[in-house]
């Protein structure tokens, strides 16, 4: 009886620990002033990830939908120049922008002793929504997949079948994007 209780407590603690470690990006927005460098992942959660994880961060703006949509599109266009071979799909009728880009670490920057990834693929989705009070909301979702330097997948064989490793975002890129949208809106003169 006592052994089964200990096992139950052990499993409960493991579940709580894994949930805390997988600490996906917080849905609460925090300003990030400078463009984060590198992959921007949660190392602990990424080490345990077996499937792709999409983080979601959102913010609301005291601006009409048209202004927020235009600012979001400008920021997405700036973001797509951060990687190589960007693909961007824009659906203004649905308020959606999808962006996929690849980042490759140069041979000069690559150190196999310090980094297990050769690069990464970012997939962003921006969703702009008009709210009833004349405000607007932007949700930024990010899925990150690592490009392994060495094909060692350990216990995540299924995840590595695509050639990419699932990673978990730390939320900094999403926060930076929302900061850029907020700053873009602040620079735009208000309509009378």
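^ Assign residues to that structure.
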């Amino acid at each position: 009886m006592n052994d089964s209780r200990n096992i139950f407590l052990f499993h409960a603690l493991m579940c709580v620990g894994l949930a805390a470690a997988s600490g996906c990006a917080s849905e609460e927005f925090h300003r990030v002033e400078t463009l984060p460098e590198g992959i921007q992942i949660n190392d602990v959660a990424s080490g345990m990830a077996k499937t792709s994880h999409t983080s979601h961060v959102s913010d609301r703006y005291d601006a009409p939908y048209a202004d927020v949509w235009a600012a979001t599109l400008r920021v997405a266009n700036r973001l797509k120049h951060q990687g190589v071979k960007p693909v961007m799909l824009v659906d203004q009728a649905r308020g959606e922008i999808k962006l996929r880009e690849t980042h490759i670490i140069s041979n000069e920057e690559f150190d196999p002793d310090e980094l297990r990834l050769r690069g990464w693929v970012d997939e962003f989705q921006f969703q702009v929504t008009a709210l009833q009070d004349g405000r607007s909301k932007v949700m930024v979702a990010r899925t990150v997949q690592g490009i392994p330097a060495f094909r060692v997948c350990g216990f995540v064989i299924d995840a590595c079948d695509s050639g990419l490793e699932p990673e978990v975002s730390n939320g900094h890129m999403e926060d930076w994007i929302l900061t850029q949208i907020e700053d873009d809106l602040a620079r735009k003169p208000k309509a009378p």
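Strands lie at 54-61, 84-91, 96-104, 117-130, 136-148, 165-166.
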